[in-house]
Amino acid sequence: MRKFFSLAIIAAAILFAVNPAMAAEGAEAVAKTPWGSVAAGISLAFAAAFGAIGQGKAIVAACEGIARNPGATGNIRTTLLIGLAFIESLVLYVLVIAFAIK
């Protein structure tokens, strides 16, 4: 848990350092600086990494739930697929925003 918080602090520091580039006027000014690409790459990397971690934890929990109660397989599977879709949609939103910044 400590590693997660230290990574979150580092990510926040990087994003705050990139913030002045985002305050420039218009998207054209951001596109002229390399910071837009850096922010897009970092945000996409974090979204993909933590999205994958979240999906892995969801799958593990679903497998454990099915192993404990095989009768609830259908309900668990449906809930799992909906949850995985939500997690993946967050990563795709970051991808769209990264392309908009870049």
UniProtKB/TrEMBL annotation:
The keyword Transmembrane helix applies. It holds the Pfam family ATP-synt_C. GO terms for cellular component: plasma membrane; proton-transporting ATP synthase complex; proton-transporting two-sector ATPase complex, proton-transporting domain. It is found in: Cell membrane; Membrane. Residues 39-100 form the V-ATPase proteolipid subunit C-like domain. CDD domains: ATP-synt_Fo_c. The record marks 88 as: Reversibly protonated during proton transport. The chain crosses the membrane at residues 39-60, 80-101. PROSITE patterns: ATPASE_C. One of its GO terms (molecular function) is proton-transporting ATP synthase activity, rotational mechanism. The keyword Transport applies. Residues 1-23 form the signal peptide. InterPro entries: ATP_synth_F0_csu, ATP_synth_F0_csu_DDCD_BS, ATP_synth_F0_csu_sf, ATPase_proteolipid_c-like_dom, F/V-ATP_Csub_sf. Belongs to the ATPase C chain family. F(1)F(0) ATP synthase produces ATP from ADP in the presence of a proton or sodium gradient. F-type ATPases consist of two structural domains, F(1) containing the extramembraneous catalytic core and F(0) containing the membrane proton channel, linked together by a central stalk and a peripheral stalk. During catalysis, ATP synthesis in the catalytic domain of F(1) is coupled via a rotary mechanism of the central stalk subunits to proton translocation. Key component of the F(0) channel; it plays a direct role in translocation across the membrane. A homomeric c-ring of between 10-14 subunits forms the central stalk rotor element with the F(1) delta and epsilon subunits. This is ATP synthase subunit c. It comes from Thermotomaculum hydrothermale.
